[in-house]
Amino acid sequence: MNQSQSRPNRHREKGDKPDWPVAPTKAETALLPAFAGLSHDRIHVPATPAECERAANEIFSAGVGGFDTEARPTFRAGETSDGPHVVQFALTDKAFIFQLHRSECEEVVSDLIASEEVLKVGFGLKNDHGQIRNRLGITLKHVLDLDQVFRKQGYRGQIGVRGAMGALLKQGFKKSKSITTSNWAKPELRPAQLLYAANDAYAALKIMEALEEKGHLQR
User: Fold this and answer.
1) Inside any domain, residue 76
2) Using CB atoms within 10 A as the burial measure, which of 74, 137, 179, 186 is most buried?
3) pTM (2 decimals)?
4) Which domain covers residue 141, as residue numbers?
5) At 103, is the secondary structure helix, strand, or coil?
6) Is 115 within the bounds of a domain?
């Protein structure tokens, strides 16, 4: 037997299925039952020092929350984002949307972000690290990036919340480009923005819980 015959064939023929798990495509997830998510009455936007403090206390008490940030988009080459402008935390039955143009929100959010007592769960958090450091001058600590969890299971690249929701929960998660690229620095966010921001973080928490239930994740 020559050398080429003794090695396993590492090249798949065209049409062969890959030997690693594959997340459903955007078109495939669109056919799945929709992820229900949080309704507007479960989304809170703290606006006073007392409201910010109560929200922070709830998050600290929970010890874990779905996490994400939003920033006003940049459109010109070389333009640097001055975000994040919004930081969201989701608990099992509600979400808090902190707008950082409010100084009282910035203070409690900084405490939460830098805390080792609150596990921040999300997808693709690498970009969040840089923006948080630039905007707030602190380090995002105690995080669980679910992209890394799925990568350890064999998925290639970033799976993202939509792919993970389809693969694990068999539900569709709709992401509107017009909302994701909207102006998150506005003093008053639109209802559609609040709904998107809350459920992006909430979905991460639900996916983490499903991973734990299926024995794919231990904290």
Assistant:
1) no
2) 179
3) 0.88
4) 22-70+82-212
5) helix
6) yes
